[in-house]
Amino acid sequence: MNQTKRITVLMCVYNGERFLVEQLESICNQTRQPEEVIIYDDCSTDSSINIINQFIAKYNLTSSWKININPFRKGWRLNFYDAITECNGDYIFFCDQDDIWHPDKISIMTEAMQKNPNILVLTGFMETIDANGCPVNVMDWTENNIYNRKIIKSNLGETIFVWKPRIGCTMAIQKTVKDQLKYFKRNENFAHDIWALNIGALLGGCYHINHPVIQYRVHENNATAKRTIKMLNREERILQLENKVNYLEYIYDGASLINIILINQDEYSVLLKAVAFYKFKLNSIREHKVIHVFGLIPYINIYFEYINFKQLLIDVLEVLRLRDYVRLIKHPGKI
């Protein structure tokens, strides 16, 4: 395989002493070694920094592994945001502090990206393990364990309307995606994997490889692992929609500054429709006017293409002010 492309691994750390060594070793044992490993520590108060420095010294990695210690706590989102500006690789791999990479992660993903230069963002599957490294079944991360290394393109509609296990610790991006980040305001509410996925999709280059690339550790301190599904009350639904609208406007504001030649216009039209769709949903739940039922008609195709018919019925009940009554029947006293 042609190895002219430079690889950067970017790891952000905060009080990760419990699992750090296993993750560092899994990077060090890659069959395709990165030219650069950048580690940003967010003011750890445990022994994380000592562990990293000792590891670098033990394996004589000072020429390619660098550690930066933030002058103050930023939080993991801003830590990734700022750290990526220091990455020099053609391909950049995001890395959490508590997972274990498969030995061929970099080689498999790099080979796929070199064979298809249209891939700007590539994600893989993950196998889940617990704090002790034992396999656990968390959600359906791996789609029945059918692995064939098939590469599937994702469009912007899928990244906006559909949640899939496409998270940063399985992700590699081209430098082109990193270069667009300067157009997006520094925001502590939006994680690096979210903006990377959506920039990649907006440029027409978001892909997924059907192959596990890491062991994803699920434990009590995960930043992103805990996902619960519940029937929200009205105030919670409004807050959720407000966050969604803010997130889409964040993408829109950044996209308006990107060179139009780079943007896929079909994907951009999806973005505009998504902004309008979620603004409508927010307005309809705030105002509760029956006439808003007719306002759903232009968005019917969104439900059938990206969401589902059940959600359409739920949103109709929302507009008709009946959803909370259904919720009250299922959860008495919790409107």
What features would you describe in this structure?
This protein is α/β, with parallel strands linked by helices and 335 residues long. It has two domains: 7-217, Spore Coat Polysaccharide Biosynthesis Protein SpsA, Chain A; 234-330, no CATH class. The chain has helices spanning 20-28, 48-58, 76-83, 105-115, 156-161, 175-180, 192-202, 234-255, 265-287, 292-295, 300-305, 309-319, 323-330; strands at residues 7-13, 36-41, 65-69, 91-95, 100-101, 121-129, 151-154, 171-174, 206-217. Strands 1, 2, 3, 4, 5, 6, 7, 8 and 9 form a nine-stranded mixed beta sheet that branches. Helix 2 (48-58) links the parallel strand 2 and strand 3. It is globular and about 70 Å long. 35% of the residues are buried.
Shape: globular
Rg estimate, integer Å: 21 Å
Within CATH, the superfamily of the largest domain carries the name: Spore Coat Polysaccharide Biosynthesis Protein SpsA, Chain A
Structural class: alpha/beta
Count every helix, treating DSSP H or I runs of 4 or more residues as helices: 13
Q: Any low-confidence stretches, pLDDT <50, length ≥5? A: 225-229
What's the short story on this structure?
The chain is of the alpha/beta class and 335 residues long. The protein has helices at residues 20-28, 48-58, 76-83, 105-115, 156-161, 175-180, 192-202, 234-255, 265-287, 292-295, 300-305, 309-319, 323-330, and strands at 7-13, 36-41, 65-69, 91-95, 100-101, 121-129, 151-154, 171-174, 206-217.
